[in-house]
């Protein structure tokens, strides 16, 4: 499996995801600078968290129009797996690879804490190592993670089984109290219709090692390596 | 040309005798640009003129100290050719006037101090002091400062892992925002600021220069009055995105051999950076100010030299490496301009529009700044209070009250707004005794803490100074880290008042003694004076930032109780010292009494014992005892426990119960120990000549003492409740 991580000016989780991906892959993934448009053959492209272009204008808006994103879109259309985490999720929605938008958090504050998520489906390359309905713990760290889409889009997302993760309590109950940022339907992450592109606000790469407090996130990277190798 | 009148001299904060010295150095009258340069270079903020004499008495050396005070930050050796570079710095005055930008640029400034030396920043901390929660400005200041720290730190991608917060009416008009950054560098690739190589190009990189922050350093060297709000334009505006690019660009260039010297533009901007580099190298600089990248048109030489625009650096580059350096900064889309070169004249010669606008000798400005031996008086020490004369309250009710008071309530509302996990190495998140960050790609860890107890310092500056250092030592030891060195951030009132100067002198004397006896030298620091509004000074607040090393980061101890049926072991002596305690202040409404004395030899032995026990894997949980005393420490361990495991305590009959529960005797720790390990722990304590006693047992979901009990759940509610409710405006 060949994997690359896109690096924008202002990305700051690029190294974190590289470390975790390397642990699953056995070698260092390729780091691609935002001006590069000449991508080699790839099985997985990761768009990492951070503040691409300073999050000026709107989170992810400028990165969505960068040269490298045109190439990412073309690859995604051909079926290359794309994983967008946090700012990466915002970029993928801005680029039109995923539906919906991420608005300011309900309380208008940045939130950094562990949350529980319910895995909605295990029938994807991203989640095959989990079980549908399983509760996992990932951290969130964002000020704009409040997922919103119009009623028709939400209906389509739900109908097509595009919801990847929902915020829930420790027992898996999807409740308002377990929703950290006001996301519609407690949605924490979504797929494209073909489930080859995943965007999520929580950071699986941050809890991928017991020393750091848990390893639920590692399963996602192991799943991808297993599926794509 | 503007005539230099006594008025203009006074506006620049120069005293008549200081101006006389200016005339003597120059042999002529300065022009306005030159006067401005003298004014910022000799400001208290840049020159340390009131504190220098006393700062020199602090111990700064140890075999593991690579570079002590005098550089941008201190450097210590952590083995394997790695160094930790760290410093704490205040941004008090700007944060009061404009809390978001003041705090944000405080973080930006301290980050630059660290990465300018070649270190990648790996952790940020903040020591914050606000006024009375009931004061009408406090809520706004807390919200703005926290949001500013988060806004900057989160964007640059450096985790904010810890800090401390106090509330007290003495900070109503002068909040304290002390920011600390810790960075990691290769020991053989540390960069310094001494310029070298006559003819070498002087290069400006980073953001463009604007009119913001002019005279920030001078503002930070004066008392506030009712017109302070008018100083808003002197507060700088930060751009963390540019800072992130600047970090990456500098570190990328530092991996080559292009840089001779580098210095960030902090307080007093281009002036202090250029003078410092030239002075340390014993050289001169010629600069053409027309070449400085500018944000606005028509800026004068005065404005360019005094601007405190953020995210800028000055470098001396090796000849022939200009193109390489330019390419790196262009890649990161930052300004890069060769603005001058080094000379052998020892003078700073500045030109603008083809004319010489300043021609000053460097050393007299940089080195011969005034140094004062300001008059001081021995502070009046408070008398001890007798525990038996202090009101007794049901201990668990008092505990519940204390845990919900502003100084003890959970800070979760604050640290959840900080990204404390980015970089993927945060082993202990905020909420413990010290933050623990793994040294990337190794098994080592760095422990970091900030500490001072201002109510002790005001009651007895000498003891308070000792205690601040001792508590930092204890917090590091409590996670199992070997304390290595400290940075200090000395926040005081107006040093021209002998009583305030007495606080400074005595606090430094206490700190120095503790640092010496604990082998815990001072390697960097910052002084913030004139923290007064309309004559009212803050509590003396010498904040200590301590750094320690864990050889095996996976062995760090945490405060949460792990299991039931384990012994709760108290390390250290308990006499029930209630003077200057939180119990006395919060429960009895009395801010009185002398603070608990620190016995440094015992402190050291207890620390060695606890570190050894943790290293040997004999400790399930560990917590130092500080604010609020023993019962608060035990409650914090229970509240942190995943399953809210309680503790049944067995109080001795030899002390009044409230004194045992809430006394703030120093040099103590609470440990959770399994029965199997207990004999070894007790033996080791005897071996270390340290008092030890089993005081309780874990189990259930309540804290019980003296025949009373309270549910952990109830304590958590109170503890977690205060700050969010206060910030929502539902409680005062």
From TrEMBL, chain A:
User: Please, which domain of life does this record's source organism belong to?
Assistant: Bacteria
Query: Which BP terms in the Gene Ontology apply to this protein?
Result: 'de novo' IMP biosynthetic process
| Annotated keywords | ATP-binding, Cytoplasm, Glutamine amidotransferase, Hydrolase, Ligase, Nucleotide-binding, Purine biosynthesis
InterPro entries from the UniProt entry: Class_I_gatase-like, PRibForGlyAmidine_synth_PurQ
GO cellular component, as recorded: cytoplasm
Query: Catalytic activity annotated for this protein?
Result: N(2)-formyl-N(1)-(5-phospho-beta-D-ribosyl)glycinamide + L-glutamine + ATP + H2O = 2-formamido-N(1)-(5-O-phospho-beta-D-ribosyl)acetamidine + L-glutamate + ADP + phosphate + H(+); L-glutamine + H2O = L-glutamate + NH4(+)
Q: Where in the cell is it found?
A: Cytoplasm
Fetch the Pfam families from UniProt.
GATase_5 (PF13507)
Q: What pathway, per the record? A: Purine metabolism; IMP biosynthesis via de novo pathway; 5-amino-1-(5-phospho-D-ribosyl)imidazole from N(2)-formyl-N(1)-(5-phospho-D-ribosyl)glycinamide: step 1/2
A GO molecular function annotation here is: phosphoribosylformylglycinamidine synthase activity
Query: What EC identifiers does the entry list?
Result: 6.3.5.3, 3.5.1.2
Q: Report if keyword Translocase is assigned.
A: no
**Main subcellular localization, coarse class?**
cytoplasm
Q: Where is the active site?
A: 86, 203, 205
Quaternary structure per UniProt? Part of the FGAM synthase complex composed of 1 PurL, 1 PurQ and 2 PurS subunits.
Briefly state the protein's biological role. Answer: Part of the phosphoribosylformylglycinamidine synthase complex involved in the purines biosynthetic pathway. Catalyzes the ATP-dependent conversion of formylglycinamide ribonucleotide (FGAR) and glutamine to yield formylglycinamidine ribonucleotide (FGAM) and glutamate. The FGAM synthase complex is composed of three subunits. PurQ produces an ammonia molecule by converting glutamine to glutamate. PurL transfers the ammonia molecule to FGAR to form FGAM in an ATP-dependent manner.
HAMAP family attached to this UniProt entry: PurQ (MF_00421)
Q: Which PANTHER family does the protein's record reference? A: PHOSPHORIBOSYLFORMYLGLYCINAMIDINE SYNTHASE SUBUNIT PURQ
Query: What is the protein name for this chain?
Result: Phosphoribosylformylglycinamidine synthase subunit PurQ
Annotated organism of origin: Magnetospirillum fulvum MGU-K5
Quote the gene name from the UniProt entry.
purQ
From TrEMBL, chain B:
Major place of localization? cytoplasm
| Gene behind this protein | purL
Protein name per Swiss-Prot or TrEMBL: Phosphoribosylformylglycinamidine synthase subunit PurL
The compartments listed are: Cytoplasm
Return the broad EC class: ligase
Q: Which residues bind ATP?
A: 48, 87, 488, 525
Q: Does the keyword Iron apply?
A: no
- Ranges where the PurM-like C-terminal domain occurs: 198-350, 564-699
Amino acids binding Mg(2+) 2: 113, 264
Binding sites annotated in the UniProt record for substrate: 90-93, 112, 236, 308-310, 528
Per the record, the similarity remark reads: Belongs to the FGAMS family.
**What are the catalytic residues?**
45, 91
On whether ATP-binding is a keyword of this UniProt record, the answer is yes
What pathway, per the record?
Answer: Purine metabolism; IMP biosynthesis via de novo pathway; 5-amino-1-(5-phospho-D-ribosyl)imidazole from N(2)-formyl-N(1)-(5-phospho-D-ribosyl)glycinamide: step 1/2
Under the subunit heading, UniProt states: Monomer. Part of the FGAM synthase complex composed of 1 PurL, 1 PurQ and 2 PurS subunits.
What keywords sit in the KW lines? ATP-binding, Cytoplasm, Ligase, Magnesium, Metal-binding, Nucleotide-binding, Purine biosynthesis
**Gene Ontology biological process:** 'de novo' IMP biosynthetic process
Q: What does this protein do?
A: Part of the phosphoribosylformylglycinamidine synthase complex involved in the purines biosynthetic pathway. Catalyzes the ATP-dependent conversion of formylglycinamide ribonucleotide (FGAR) and glutamine to yield formylglycinamidine ribonucleotide (FGAM) and glutamate. The FGAM synthase complex is composed of three subunits. PurQ produces an ammonia molecule by converting glutamine to glutamate. PurL transfers the ammonia molecule to FGAR to form FGAM in an ATP-dependent manner.
* Reactions it catalyzes: N(2)-formyl-N(1)-(5-phospho-beta-D-ribosyl)glycinamide + L-glutamine + ATP + H2O = 2-formamido-N(1)-(5-O-phospho-beta-D-ribosyl)acetamidine + L-glutamate + ADP + phosphate + H(+)
Molecular function as annotated in GO: ATP binding; magnesium ion binding; phosphoribosylformylglycinamidine synthase activity
Where does this protein come from, organism-wise? Magnetospirillum fulvum MGU-K5
Cross-referenced Gene3D superfamilies, in alphabetical order?
PurM-like C-terminal domain (3.90.650.10), PurM-like, N-terminal domain (3.30.1330.10)
The family database entries (HAMAP family) matched by this protein are listed as: PurL_2
This entry's Enzyme Commission designation comes to 6.3.5.3
């Amino acid at each position: 499996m060949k994997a690359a991580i896109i690096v924008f000016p202002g990305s700051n989780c690029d190294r974190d995801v590289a470390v975790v991906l390397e642990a699953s892959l056995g070698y260092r993934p390729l780091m691609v600078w935002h001006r590069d448009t000449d991508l080699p053959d790839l099985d997985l492209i990761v768009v990492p968290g951070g503040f691409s272009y300073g999050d000026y204008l709107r989170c992810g808006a400028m990165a969505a129009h960068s040269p490298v994103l045109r190439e990412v879109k073309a690859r995604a259309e051909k079926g290359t797996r794309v994983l967008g985490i946090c700012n990466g999720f915002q970029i993928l929605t801005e680029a039109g690879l995923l539906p919906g938008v991420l608005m300011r958090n309900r309380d208008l504050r940045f939130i950094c804490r562990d949350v529980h998520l319910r895995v909605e489906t295990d029938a994807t390359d991203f989640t095959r190592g989990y079980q549908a309905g399983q509760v996992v713990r990932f951290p969130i760290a964002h000020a704009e993670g409040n997922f919103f889409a119009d009623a028709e889009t939400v209906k389509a997302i739900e109908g097509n089984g595009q919801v990847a993760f929902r915020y829930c309590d420790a027992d898996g109950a999807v409740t308002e109290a377990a929703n950290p940022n006001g996301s519609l339907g407690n949605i924490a992450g979504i797929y494209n219709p073909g489930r080859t592109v995943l965007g999520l606000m929580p950071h699986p790469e941050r809890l991928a090692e017991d020393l750091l407090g848990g390893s639920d996130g590692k399963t996602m990277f192991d799943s991808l390596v297993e599926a794509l190798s | 040309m503007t005539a230099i009148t006594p008025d203009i001299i006074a506006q620049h904060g120069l005293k008549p005798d200081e101006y006389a010295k200016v005339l003597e150095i120059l042999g002529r009258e300065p022009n306005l640009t030159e006067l401005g340069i003298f004014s910022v270079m000799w400001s208290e903020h840049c020159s340390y003129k009131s504190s220098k004499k006393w700062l020199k008495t602090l111990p700064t050396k140890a075999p593991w100290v690579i570079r002590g005070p005098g550089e941008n930050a201190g450097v210590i050796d952590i083995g394997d050719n790695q160094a930790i570079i760290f410093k704490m710095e205040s941004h008090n005055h700007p944060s009061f006037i404009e809390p978001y930008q003041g705090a944000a640029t405080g973080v930006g400034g301290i980050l630059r101090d660290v990465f300018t030396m070649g270190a990648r920043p790996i952790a940020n901390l903040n020591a914050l002091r606000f006024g009375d929660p009931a004061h009408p400005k406090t809520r706004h200041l807390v919200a703005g400062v926290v949001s500013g720290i988060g806004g900057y730190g989160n964007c640059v991608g450096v985790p904010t892992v810890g800090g401390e917060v106090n509330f007290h009416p003495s900070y109503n008009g002068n909040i304290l925002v002390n920011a600390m950054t810790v960075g990691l560098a290769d020991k053989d690739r540390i960069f310094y600021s001494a310029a070298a190589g006559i003819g070498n190009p002087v290069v400006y990189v980073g953001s463009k220069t604007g009119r913001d922050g002019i005279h920030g350093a001078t503002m930070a060297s004066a008392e506030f009055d009712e017109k302070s709000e008018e100083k808003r334009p002197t507060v700088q505006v930060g751009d963390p995105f540019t800072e992130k690019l600047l970090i990456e660009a500098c570190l990328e260039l530092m991996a080559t051999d292009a840089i001779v010297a580098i210095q960030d533009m902090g307080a007093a901007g281009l002036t202090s950076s250029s003078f410092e580099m030239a002075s340390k190298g014993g050289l001169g600089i010629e600069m053409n100010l027309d070449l400085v990248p500018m944000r606005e048109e028509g800026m004068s030489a005065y404005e360019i030299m005094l601007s405190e625009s953020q995210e800028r650096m000055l470098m001396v580059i090796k000849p022939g490496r200009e193109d390489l350096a330019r390419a790196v900064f262009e890649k990161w889309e930052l300004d890069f301009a060769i603005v001058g070169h080094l000379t052998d004249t020892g003078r700073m010669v500045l030109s603008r529009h083809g004319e010489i606008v300043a021609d000053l000798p460097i050393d007299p400005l940089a080195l011969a700044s005034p140094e004062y031996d300001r008059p001081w008086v021995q502070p009046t020490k408070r008398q001890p209070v007798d525990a038996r004369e202090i009101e007794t309250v049901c201990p668990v009710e008092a505990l519940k009250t204390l845990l919900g008071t502003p100084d003890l309530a959970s800070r979760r509302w604050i640290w959840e707004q900080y990204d404390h996990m980015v970089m993927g190495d945060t082993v202990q998140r905020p909420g413990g005794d010290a933050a623990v960050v793994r040294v990337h790609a190794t098994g080592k860890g760095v422990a970091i803490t900030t500490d001072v107890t201002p109510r002790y310092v005001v009651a007895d500056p000498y003891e308070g100074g000792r205690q601040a250092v001792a508590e930092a030592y204890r917090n590091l030891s409590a996670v199992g880290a070997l304390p290595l060195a400290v940075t200090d951030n000395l926040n005081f009132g107006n040093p021209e008042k002998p009583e305030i100067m007495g606080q400074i002198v005595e606090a430094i004397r206490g700190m120095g003694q503790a640092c010496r006896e604990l082998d815990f030298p001072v390697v960097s620091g910052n002084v913030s004076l004139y923290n007064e509004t309309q004559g009212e000074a803050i509590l003396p607040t010498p904040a200590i930032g301590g750094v320690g090393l864990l050889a095996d980061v996976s062995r760090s101890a945490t405060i949460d109780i792990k299991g039931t049926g384990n012994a709760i072991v108290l390390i250290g002596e308990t006499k029930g010292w209630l003077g200057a305690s939180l119990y006395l202040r919060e429960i009895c409404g009395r801010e009185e009494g002398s603070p608990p004395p620190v016995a440094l030899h015992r402190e050291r032995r207890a620390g060695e014992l606890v570190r050894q026990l943790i290293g040997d894997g004999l400790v399930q949980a560990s917590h130092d005892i500080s604010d609020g005393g023993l019962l608060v420490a035990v409650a914090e361990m229970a509240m942190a426990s995943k399953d809210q495991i309680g503790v049944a305590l067995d109080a001795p009959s030899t002390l009044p119960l409230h004194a045992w529960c809430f006394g703030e005797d120093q040099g103590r720790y609470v440990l959770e120990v399994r029965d199997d390990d207990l004999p070894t722990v007790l033996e080791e304590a005897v071996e270390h000549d340290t008092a030890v006693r089993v005081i309780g047992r874990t189990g259930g979901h309540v804290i019980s003492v003296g025949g009373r009990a309270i549910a952990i759940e109830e304590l958590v509610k109170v503890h977690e409740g205060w700050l969010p409710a206060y910030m929502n405006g539902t409680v005062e």
